[in-house]
Write a structure and sequence with these properties.
The complex is a heterodimer of chains A (180) and B (672).
Chain A: E1 4-10, H1 16-22, H2 26-35, E2 36-40, E3 53-59, E4 62-64, H3 65-77, E5 78-84, H4 85-89, H5 102-110, E6 130-135, E7 145-147, H6 154-165
Chain B: E1 3-8, E2 11-16, H1 21-27, E3 51-54, E4 61-62, E5 73-75, H2 79-95, H3 110-117, E6 134-135, E7 141-144, H4 153-161, E8 167-170, E9 177-180, H5 196-200, E10 206-208, E11 221-226, E12 235-241, E13 244-250, H6 262-270, E14 280-283, E15 286-289, H7 292-306, E16 310-314, H8 320-334, E17 339-341, H9 344-352, H10 354-358, E18 398-402, H11 411-421, E19 425-429, E20 442-444, H12 451-462, H13 469-476, H14 480-492, E21 495-500, H15 502-525, E22 529-534, H16 541-546, E23 565-571, H17 578-583, E24 588-593, H18 598-602, E25 605-608, E26 617-620, E27 626-629, H19 642-652
Parallel strand pairs in B: 1-5, 16-17, 16-23, 18-19, 18-21, 19-20, 21-22, 23-24, 24-25
Antiparallel strand pairs in B: 1-2, 3-4, 3-5, 6-7, 7-10, 8-9, 11-12, 12-13, 14-15, 14-25, 26-27
Helix pairs in contact in B: 7-19, 8-19, 9-15, 12-13, 12-14, 12-15
Classes of the chains: A alpha/beta (180), B alpha/beta (672).
Chain lengths: 180, 672
């Protein structure tokens, strides 16, 4: 049996979920030395193109047009998509701006912030536009498994990975779940 | 009550007629998820989490509202029910902002726990993201509408327990909002800051500013004790974290005192003045900080030079253990006859009244008879359960409230309001403003000092004696028609309770109390019942009386030979009248107090004292029963416990008296 090919994606999130993945520590070494091959992952690789994998793991909410496009391409290239962290599962901290209108947020950040002088909202076509509302990954594409947490504990992530390696879709037991 | 049998999840279970299906489930250890249900509130079936299947019914029903009946076949835990429950939770999550990581309640949240249980790891519905306000206008409470699940627990608690109904829903459907008053900010509403809404809120929608983000049950130590702000002795759970008090909650949902009041729930945490942390000695007219050794040496020297001409006065807020020690110090060490408590005037007036002669003060109730004040031992018996306590207020058809005298609105006001809502007539006699004024059928506002005359006149008229009501009305400055109506209501009532505070005793003494009691005696014979509830001035007024710390005769004001030493044990009692002390004409005044007050500014020596949170012991409460208080906090550095100070003073006076153990020793209350 060959190694399971896994890619990870970092959308609008703080990287905390990826840090939690690295927090698997020796379990990560064990996984990488036998069972798993990481194909593309923001902390490890600098690969722009998406390649087909078995499992895609996504951190972060969908906040910009770029996020949405990346997510759709990512989805097309993985057999199983796992959303990790509260941002990917629910919208999380990133979606706090949903309490305001998009324009209010842009103006507050780029114009009204106390330290800004003559600020203006960026209009360059190279800067991705933000969406009206931040969305959870599941609101854009189909997701096979959700592992919530802010961040999810390494224990929860390891449970999910082990279930996947056993060929099952992970459903996190209640006692491992945490929204904090 | 009739027993019924039904089948739940295949099990034969028993319930009582009148139970809901949820009651039966809980009584039989069958777990049904709930969110809006709280056992002390009327069930409303708002959250739909307790949905159940009932054989023969096509639709789902809520267990909390469905009446159990003989032969019912119920299923509570099927795959399809749990699917519905999960979907209900998803609706709640989609409706407002329930992101746990920036919520104050996370870790203690009932919604969060349900989401874990039903594995709500995503929300497959469009999020509504409504723009909702947050109301932090209130001194203590914040309403965060984004976290609200519209369970209506706060609304029901404010209505059914507090009787105020400050909170209610406004608008409809998904736009429904919990609203204070007529859409006012909470600060401008009639809220009395009891904080019960916060305690019952299952999510982070209502929280208090002090404990928010500090208070997680799992990180706190919980100490169950009683609040000693007044004689109600409400059962509380005090939560401490690293030795600091962070939250106080009412501990018994089935007791009306779960409400607490702003003094007991918030002010002990937020609003206390700076403490006295070092002893002070008056030198050249000024109080200067001195060491405990110097201060006690001075006190011991003065006492030794002048005993037995020493007067010892204690606050009746102290528990029996400390009062007993104080008494031993006065009698055994100092050999003085002059021992009293600050509640002396009140206690003596009651004991001299005919209430006192009918029911010996301090033996108001049998230990086991529960809530009962005043009448349980009266020869004529009493109502159904032979008690006249705060719960009886709910069964009265007429209430007379005479100057209750509480600093803030507390559970007694709520009991009265609830009785009025249930149809009871309320007659208020109060020379000042009364917080229950708008609930009164008749509000008699006599000129200050004439309330006793008014009460006596009402008593005579109610008993059919000849009284010129016109004359009395003129003398007391009340409307004659109002006075006549009050008497008529009283005469017509079948079950009346008079509740009077210390103000009436102060003005009218034993005569005013007797006047009420005379009605009780005759009403029994004529056409109904009449109960009396006296509001005791302190948390342990009865303990101080029964231990004979409170003097039966009082302290003579004329001085004997030589200088007079007064030792006043005040602690955290903020109701001490400094005039009481100046009337004793002290030549040398020792005050043991937790806070600066008019009493400490008169003192020659000030010794730091504890607050009620810092000491344990037994108290005899408003209800005549013994309550055990537990120590919640360590006193701040520099503050030595009263027992240690008294023991040390005794040693310096050449006599050792044993210190009672800190709490729960159950001093044998002998004497009166």
């Amino acid at each position: 049996m060959g190694k399971a090919r896994i890619s990870t994606l970092w959308l609008s999130g703080c990287s905390g979920c990826h840090m939690s993945l690295l927090d698997l520590d020796e379990a990560l070494v064990e996984l990488l030395s036998g069972k798993v091959e990481i194909v593309k992952s923001p902390p490890l690789t600098d690969v722009k193109e998406h390649t087909p994998v078995d499992v895609g793991i996504v951190e972060g909410a969908v906040a910009t047009e770029e996020d949405e496009e990346e997510l759709r391409k990512f989805r097309d290239n993985c057999k199983i998509l796992v959303a990790i962290g509260d941002c990917a599962c629910f919208g999380g901290i990133t979606s706090y701006r949903n309490l305001f209108d998009k324009d209010e947020v842009l103006s507050r950040v780029f114009v009204e912030t106390e330290s800004v002088v003559d600020g203006k909202v960026p209009a360059s076509r190279y800067v991705p536009k933000i969406l009206d509302k931040v969305k959870a990954v599941g609101h854009i594409v189909k997701v096979e498994a959700h592992i919530p947490g802010c961040p999810p504990s390494p224990r929860a992530l390891l449970y999910a990975l082990k279930e996947l390696l056993e060929g099952r879709i992970p459903i996190l037991p209640s006692d491992m779940a945490s929204f904090e | 009550m009739k027993e019924i049998r039904l089948k739940i999840d295949g099990r034969e279970v028993k319930g009582k007629e009148g139970d809901t299906v949820l009651d039966v489930c809980l009584a039989n250890g069958i777990e049904v998820p709930t969110l809006c249900n709280l056992k002390c509130l009327t069930p409303v079936g708002a959250c739909r989490l307790c949905v159940i299947e009932i054989e023969g019914e096509k639709k789902l029903n809520t267990a909390c509202t469905y009446p159990a009946r003989e032969g019912l076949v119920v299923r509570t835990n099927t795959e399809s029910l749990n699917k519905y429950r999960k979907r209900m939770l998803e609706f709640l999550f989609a409706e407002r902002n329930h992101y746990c990581m920036f919520c104050e309640k996370s870790g203690d949240c009932e919604l969060q726990n349900l989401a874990y249980k039903f594995q709500v790891y995503n929300v497959p519905l469009d999020m509504l993201n409504p723009k909702l306000p947050m109301d932090s206008s209130h001194e203590y409470l914040t309403i965060e509408h984004n976290r609200c699940v519209l369970c209506s627990r706060c609304i029901r608690a404010c209505d059914e327990i507090v009787g105020l109904h400050v909170l209610d829903f406004s608008k409809r459907g998904s736009r429904t909002m919990v609203t204070a008053g007529l859409g006012d900010p909470l600060k401008g509403s009639p809220c009395i800051a009891c904080g019960l809404c916060m305690q019952v809120c299952p999510t982070g929608a209502i929280f208090d500013k002090f404990s928010s983000y500090k208070f997680k049950r799992k990180d706190c130590e919980k100490i169950s004790t009683v609040c000693q702000e007044c004689g109600l002795l409400c059962p509380i759970d005090a939560y401490t974290k690293n030795g600091n008090l962070v939250r106080i909650e009412g501990s018994n949902l089935d007791d009306f005192r779960v409400q607490l009041c702003r003094l007991g729930r918030f002010d002990v945490i937020y609003g206390k003045p700076p403490r006295i942390l070092r002893p002070m000695v008056r030198e050249g007219g000024e109080l200067r900080e001195r060491s405990m050794d110097e201060a006690l040496k001075l006190v011991a020297d003065r006492m030794r030079a002048n005993f037995p001409n020493v007067i010892c006065v204690a606050s009746a807020k102290y528990p029996n253990e400390i009062l007993e020690l104080f008494k031993r110090f006065a009698t055994d060490v100092l050999g003085t006859m002059y021992l009293d408590s600050f509640d002396g005037e009140w206690s003596r007036a009651i004991s001299r009244s005919s209430q006192g002669s009918w029911v010996e003060l301090g033996h108001f109730v049998e230990e086991e008879s529960g809530y009962s004040i005043g009448l349980s031992k009266a020869p004529y018996g009493s109502w159904e359960d032979a008690e006249c306590g705060f719960n009886d207020i709910q069964r009265a058809d007429c209430l007379i409230s005479v100057e209750l005298g509480f600093k803030v609105q507390n559970p007694i006001h709520s009991q009265i309001r609830r009785a009025v809502k249930g149809g009871a007539k309320l007659i208020i006699v109060n020379p000042g403003d009364d917080p229950l004024g708008e609930w009164a059928s008749i509000f008699l506002k006599p000129s200050r000092g004439s309330e006793a005359i008014l009460v006596e006149a009402i008593s005579r008229a109610a008993r059919g004696r000849a009284v010129d009501l016109e004359d009395v009305a003129r003398e007391c400055g009340v409307a004659p028609e109002a006075l006549r109506s009050a008497v008529e209501i009283l005469r017509a009532s079948k079950r009346c309770i008079a509740i009077y505070g210390a103000g009436l005793v102060k003005v009218g003494g034993s005569r005013a109390v007797s006047a009420l009691f005379e009605i009780a005696k005759e009403k029994e014979m004529v056409n109904g019942r009449f109960g009396i509830i006296s509001i005791k001035p302190s948390s342990n007024t009865l303990g101080a009386w029964r231990l004979m710390v409170t003097s039966a005769e009082g302290i003579p004001s004329q001085k004997g030979k030589g200088p007079r030493i007064v030792y006043a044990l005040i602690g955290d009692d903020d109701s001490i009248d400094a005039k009481f002390l100046s009337n004793l004409k002290p030549d040398f005044l020792v005050v043991q107090s937790a806070y600066r007050s008019p009493a400490t500014s008169m003192a020659d020596v000030v010794i730091p004292a504890t607050t009620w949170l810092e000491r344990g012991g037994e108290l005899i409460g408003q209800d005549g029963r013994r309550h055990l208080a537990r120590k919640v906090l360590e006193p701040p550095a520099g503050v030595v416990g009263e027992a240690e100070v008294i023991a040390e003073l005794s040693k310096r006076m050449g006599k050792e008296i044993p210190i009672p153990r800190a709490e729960g020793i159950g001093v044998e209350v002998k004497g009166r």
